[in-house]
Amino acid sequence: MASPTARILLVDDEERFRTTMGKLLRKRGFAVEEAGSAHEALVRVQQGDVDVIVLDVKMPGMDGIQALAKIKTLDPLPEVIILTGHANVDAAVEIMRLGGYEYLLKPCPIDDLVVKIEGALEKKKAREKVLRA
Amino acid sequence: MKEHARYFWAYLPALGAFGCAVGTLSADRNLSGITLVLWGVWSLVVTFFVVRTILQERSKDEFTTRQLLQAQKMATIGEMASGIAHEVNNPLAVIGREVEWIQELLKESPPPDPQAQREIQESLHVITAQVTRCADITHRLLDFARMNKPVLQWVDLNNLIEEMVRLVERVTKTKTVTFERHYHDNLAPVWTDPPLLRQVVLNLLNNAVQAIDREGTVTVSTRDDAKGWVDIAIADTGCGIAPHHLPHLFDPFFSTKAPGKGTGLGLAVCQKIVTALGGLILVDSKEGCGSQFTVRLPRRPIETRKTFE
Ligand SMILES: Nc1ncnc2c1ncn2[C@@H]1O[C@H](COP(=O)(O)OP(=O)(O)OP(=O)(O)O)[C@@H](O)[C@H]1O
Ligand SMILES: [Mg+2]
Predict the structure, then answer these.
(1) Is the model's pLDDT at B115 over the cut of 80?
(2) Nearest alpha carbon to residue A111 among A16, A24, A13
(3) Which of A17, A27, A88 comes nearest B97 by C-beta?
(4) Chain B window 97-126: which residues touch A at a Cβ cutoff of 8 Å?
(5) Which of A69, A77, B40, B53 is the most buried (most CB within 10 A)?
(6) What domains sit in chain A, N to C, each tagged with a CATH number?
(7) Superfamily of domain B153-308, CATH level 4
(8) pTM for the predicted model, two decimal places
(9) pLDDT for A1 beyond 60
(10) b or e along B55-87 (b: 16 or more beta carbons within 10 Å of the residue's beta carbon)?
(11) For residue range B2-20, what is the model confidence (pLDDT) as tens digits?
(12) Which residues of B touch A14 (CB under 8 A)?
């Protein structure tokens, strides 16, 4: 189980999907915040203190990949997991190049997502240790 | 010969010459009669070859037109399908999450009646399984619509095929299928895209195994000819293909399998990939006896070949 203070930001324009996923993750001990668009997410990231961001690729306005690039320039610390409807090699390469942690095929069981979130938290902790040293 | 009959008018001058020759020969034994006969024979021969060339060109044209039509059909269907798949994916994801939430709630406060609880759990399992099934379809559709451009490298075909055969062999448990290998020794490497080719071989092997009812043999062989082509043949002793199904085999969504067993995308994907790799697929089948699918690849495809994007 993850540390209880792990802060997750869910970014998805599909409201019901986002809120239910939020409820499920809270049950598993994460502190969850939600954003309905990439812009909302950017505002939240600017305030700092987010550990993992779960980002949907397909959103009106700014899509997930663009949002990923913006987030990383605002604050490189949070790890980003991208949810996508399709495994596409080009997109995967782009995600990794922009510093995304991992991408997940949608629809996916919540437990798969939890495994990825825990991996991302671990990676973030390791990075912070390096930074502090 | 029947085709030549359609061009009978082209033969009229030759026949005319013969007619005149017969006329003159029977009238008086004049030399010009012989000349006319020779003239007739000559124009007969020339006409025959001209007509033959025309016919050959026409059938070549027909072939390319058919291929073009097929390519257009695939492109249109691919576009539509990927649009639909994207749209369907989101509601699927929502359904999946809701089911997980209900399961969570049931865990916390289970209904007092154990029978009811079991049935609710069972229903939720079915919903999850069906969501997964739909997701499989949408993912395959998206794969089909957005095939990645081939990334070519030298590949040892025998090796690549053997990997796939082992994979299929391992997961084939419910029936007795014997896998025979006839790999061409020292097959020269082929300049091609390994992941795409793996997908082709896997699809064909799956079809071969699925065609076998209870017991049968799948024979995998490789061959190369001196002219720079390599053949991968996958033959089975399965149900075979009805002749009236042959023209539709490579159409997206054409499937004779039970609902949930086949999407009908396997061969469409195979054809798209093999075409992009500069090759072609040959089918040989006898209903009730078995089928053989042959993938013929150029050892080194022409670089500028267009994919069906
Ligand atoms: N080896 C074979 N023997 C007999 N019939 C075959 C064979 N391969 C293909 N077919 C026929 O061609 C149809 C289309 O094949 P294809 O692989 O495109 O789709 P599918 O196998 O039905 O579904 P999918 O591959 O998407 O799971 C099959 O439904 C079957 O009728
Ligand atoms: Mg198939």
Answers:
(1) yes
(2) A24
(3) A17
(4) 97-98, 100-101, 104
(5) B40
(6) 7-132 (3.40.50.2300)
(7) Histidine kinase-like ATPase, C-terminal domain (3.30.565.10)
(8) 0.65
(9) no
(10) eeeeeeeeeeeeeeebbeebeebbeebbeebbe
(11) 667 777 777 777 777 777 7
(12) 90, 93-94
